[in-house]
Amino acid sequence: MIYCGTNGHVFALDVKDGKEVWRTKLKTKFVFNAASSGDVTVILVNDVLIASCNGHIWGLKPETGQILWHNDLPSLGNRFITMCTSNVSIQYVHGQSSDHQTEQNRP
Length: 107
Fold this sequence. Notes:
Helices cover about 0% and strands about 50% of the residues.
């Protein structure tokens, strides 16, 4: 599967044919949905797909897109969230997202 995020949504595509497998709209508990049209960053950590958008972060089930949890990160604002694992980091630099792998994991 290929996991993608855009415009307040997270979705999965079948790597073999590019067809959409599932799509999830990210929602917040607030009347104004901070994720309604924001850029979404995704990263797979073990068996949880992590998505971030406008200062919020969600954990999703990668097989179905079911939201497992949501954290609105109180008092941190509504900006882009940088995320990383032991070998991948996702950063937002001047309007562009960047994916960096450690040297040991590059092909």
